[in-house]
Amino acid sequence: MARHNLGNLYRNQGKTEKAMEQYREAIFIDNLFYPAKINLAMLYNREGENEKAETLLKEVIKDHPEQYYVNYSLGLLLAEMKKYEEAVDYLETAAGEMKDNPRVYYNLAQLQVFLGRDQEAEKNLKYLVHLAPNSAEYLMALIDFYMTHEEFKKAKSYILRISRMFPDDQQAKQLLDFVNSKLR
């Protein structure tokens, strides 16, 4: 679609209004052309027009349910809008279809922690670490979860893993000392 491509050009040039106009024209020409809706939604989000972005992303999901990454994007947008329960629903859908994408599970778990859904959060954090076993960020997310819940024995095995990955890391050594003191 020429209008969509022109919108991309304007977006890349930083001409947001012109880009939005071209995306709207592309959608007017073909209301089912979802790339223009997604790009327009991202620009709306960037401009703080999140309700418009939400509407467009929901249209894409309705018309193209196979585009699972849109569920992920919508989940993140809804979390940004403080619509946490609805955000979890979309992130869970994305996670169910994007089983090999650790970032989906990370964001879902963080939101579940925030909402106090500890069992679900732990399950997703553990799966996340399974998906990306060498990610210090994801290991630390699980360690933080266990430390916050004073589950020091569970935390210790992951701290040991971090310590093996980064033998000179002072934070890991301090965490291990702290956990060992709690387990005595």
Describe what is shown at a glance.
The protein has 184 residues and is an all-alpha fold.
What key attributes describe this structure?
184 residues; mainly alpha; Serine Threonine Protein Phosphatase 5, Tetratricopeptide repeat
Could you say what the CATH architecture of the largest domain is? Answer: Alpha Horseshoe
CATH-defined superfamily of the largest domain: Tetratricopeptide repeat domain
Distance separating the two termini: 66 Å
Compute the number of strand runs.
Answer: 0
Helix-strand string? HHHHHHHHHHH
Main beta-sheet annotation: none
Helix content: over 70%
Total of domains? 3
Structural shape: elongated
CATH class of the largest domain: Mainly Alpha
- In round numbers, the mean pLDDT is 96
Judged by helices, strands and strand pairing, the structural class is mainly alpha
Radius of gyration: 21 Å
Stated plainly, the CATH topology of the largest domain is called: Serine Threonine Protein Phosphatase 5, Tetratricopeptide repeat
Strand content: under 5%
Unreliable spans are none
Can you walk me through this structure?
The chain is mainly α and 184 residues long. It has three domains: 1-65, Alpha Horseshoe (Serine Threonine Protein Phosphatase 5, Tetratricopeptide repeat); 81-128, no CATH class; 133-184. The chain contains eleven helices and no strands. The chain has helices at 2-12, 16-29, 34-46, 50-63, 68-80, 84-97, 102-114, 118-131, 136-148, 152-165, 170-183.
